[in-house]
Amino acid sequence: MENVQSTWQTAAILIARLIFAAMFAMGVAFKLMDMGATAGYIAAAGFPFPLFLAWCAAILETLLVISFLTGAYLTPLALIGAVYVTFLGFAFHGPSHWAADQAEFGAFMSHFPFAAGLLYAAMHGPGSVLALKQGWPGRA
């Protein structure tokens, strides 16, 4: 049974999808503008194969942009995005960074509302307007 959305619900869902797409698109743009700097940041955090991981991040974020713009595979990709954003918070802004720079705590904390929004999007899907119905059975 298809849920009927009000105009306000439809507008809110579409705006939220656009915000998520814009956030990940900015991440992709910054990576593509200087993949070497992204790889350097990853290497500074102690991860191996930093250039490979930088490209993996850019590809994942591109898939997230496409998913939020089209609604296709939104549930599984938003779940992956929530795990990814939480991982980024710990890996690049976690407790080991707070003593050197207290602003890192704010950066760390900002990842959790973002992850919560992605989880909410995953559980509620892309809505019924401007959404390709691809994804897990019963969800998009």
What would you say this structure looks like, in words?
With 140 residues, this protein is mainly α. The protein is 71% helix and 0% strand. The protein is built from five helices and no strands. Helix 1 (7-33) crosses helix 2 (35-44), helix 1 runs antiparallel to helix 3 and helix 3 packs antiparallel against helix 4. The two termini are 14 Å apart.
The biggest beta sheet, please?
none
Structural class comes to mainly alpha
Mean pLDDT: 90
Radius of gyration: 16 Å
Percent of residues in beta strands? under 5%
Chain oligomer state? single chain
* Separation of the first and last Cα atoms: 14 Å
Percentage of residues in helical conformation: over 70%
Low-pLDDT segments: none
Number of strands: 0
**SSE string, helices as H and strands as E:** HHHHH
CA-based shape:
globular
Figure out the total of helices.
5
Can I get a quick summary?
The protein has helices spanning 7-33, 35-44, 50-70, 74-93, 103-124. The protein has 140 residues and is mostly helical. The mean pLDDT is 90.
